[in-house]
Design brief:
By secondary structure, the protein is mainly β. It has a single domain, classed as Neuraminidase (6 Propeller). The chain has 4 helices and 25 strands. The strands form 7 sheets. The chain has a 4-stranded antiparallel sheet, with no helix packed on it. Strands 6-7-9-10 form a 4-stranded antiparallel sheet, with no helix packed on it. Helix 1 packs across helix 3. The relative contact order is 0.11. The N terminus is likely disordered.
Length: 420
């Protein structure tokens, strides 16, 4: 029986009992401590069921969600559509239960950006607690459809949450149409799927910790599948199947990414509370090696970006002057390239050396141009920024391409600030 059905059965049984016992104090006094605790957990899980209600997509978010009404910015992701439009997504409200998603677009290669064009805000005055939309990503699939992945949870994380997806078949249109959100599984997704040489799609989904705050102890039935999960689709995203998972030590949201190496094996990198860790798979992601620390790569506890390029090289964006440099804070966001599946690294293009830069995500356009979005000083400046560059720039260690440009502004919240 599913958790929702068992919770409902328990609730109905409790309701029948409560009708037979007039005094609620006497009802609870008759319970053992174990029964009281079980009742508390059941109530928590019933409240968490409010995160199973499909969210509403707000395609006309102005003026309520204009920049003059926003005061926070945490980067989620960026991608390009077949017609050349850039879409960017970020979190407003805070890295907190107040979080919600905002999307904007650019039709001039990132030089200028629209006001918010799509908002997913699941908050409601009718709810007993905040319902957040906190992490996810944007991805253009091989068919040219634009996917928006996002999680929905009660509070910051209720122990189960859930990965949802909405797909846009016409992302270059004046009025893009998004599909009804569909829940894929529990947990959260922070990074793009990987398309394997076999044609399969792999989606990283993290379910690596128990509920926070009020939701501690909830959904213990999910403990066996907690970790950095991998979901596979062989029908271009129509269905997704849990394929395997890695339980990293000292988990910290995982934020795992997968690249396919030249020999067909898969390389997974993940964020942990002790830094970057890795695992490999030789069977398409069904089984994974014991976690280990990658040689020559050091990264603070922060999101990174790794992606295989059309050239066969691997791009990595991380913090630090060199691949093995460990910064004390989220500064010095830099891009590196590997020609041997991550064993050694070349070049080093500093995208932004300033403090408070973090959460890179990106893609490679058909012409080879690389795009990386990231945030700066989320709670104060709240800027979402874009770096547009080439592999040649990375190898040279400086911008040499005629169309390359760093620190392009995607968005800046203006609530309570003087417009600059």
């Amino acid at each position: 029986m599913s958790t929702s059905l068992s919770s409902l059965a328990f609730f109905l049984a409790w309701l029948a009992q409560s009708e037979a016992v007039q005094d609620p104090v006497a009802r609870f006094a008759a319970m053992t401590p174990e029964q009281v605790r079980a009742f508390e957990i059941e109530v928590k899980e019933k409240i968490a069921d409010l995160a199973l209600i499909p969210p509403r997509l707000n395609t006309r978010p102005l003026p309520q969600y204009g920049y003059d009404q926003l005061d926070y910015g945490m980067n989620i992701g960026i991608d390009r559509t077949p017609g050349g439009r850039l879409w960017a997504c970020w979190v407003a409200g805070g890295d907190s239960p107040k979080a919600f998603f905002v999307l904007a677009a650019s039709d001039d290669d990132g030089q200028t950006w629209s006001p918010p064009r799509l908002v997913i805000d699941s908050h409601s005055p009718n709810l007993p607690l905040d319902r957040s939309v906190l992490v996810g990503n944007l991805w253009t699939d091989p068919r040219g459809r634009l996917w928006l992945f996002f999680d929905q949870s009660m509070l910051h994380f209720d122990g189960r949450a859930g990965v949802w997806a909405t797909v846009c078949d016409n992302p270059d249109a004046d009025q893009p149409a998004w599909s009804a959100p569909r829940r894929i599984w529990h947990g959260v997704t922070l990074n793009k799927p990987t398309v394997l040489s076999t044609g399969s799609w792999l989606l990283p989904i993290s379910l690596n910790r128990e509920g926070l705050a009020y939701f501690r102890g909830a959904f213990r039935d999910l403990d066996p599948v907690r970790g950095a999960n991998v979901f596979a689709s062989t029908d271009q995203g129509a269905t997704w199947t849990r394929h395997g998972h890695v339980a990293f030590p000292n988990p910290d949201w995982d934020e795992h990414m997968i690249v396919e190496r030249q020999d067909g094996s898969l390389w997974m990198l993940a964020r942990t509370g002790k830094g970057l860790m890795q695992s490999t798979s030789s069977d398409g992601g069904k089984t994974w090696s014991p976690p280990s620390t990658p040689a020559g790569i050091r990264q603070p506890v922060a999101r990174f970006h790794v992606r295989k390029l059309a050239s066969g090289r691997i791009l990595m964006v991380k913090h630090g002057d060199t691949m093995d440099a460990l910064t004390a804070s989220r500064c010095k966001l830099k891009a590196f390239l590997s020609e041997d599946d991550g064993r050694t690294w070349k070049g080093g293009l500093m995208l932004d050396e300033r403090p408070g830069v973090s959460y890179p995500d990106g893609f490679q356009a058909l012409d080879g141009t690389l795009y990386i979005s990231y945030d700066r000083n989320r709670s104060t400046d709240g800027e979402i920024l874009l770096a547009r560059f080439t592999e040649e720039d990375v190898l040279a260690g400086q911008v040499v391409g005629p169309n390359s440009k760093l620190r392009l502004l995607i968005s800046r919240p203006l609530k309570g600030k003087t417009k600059r």
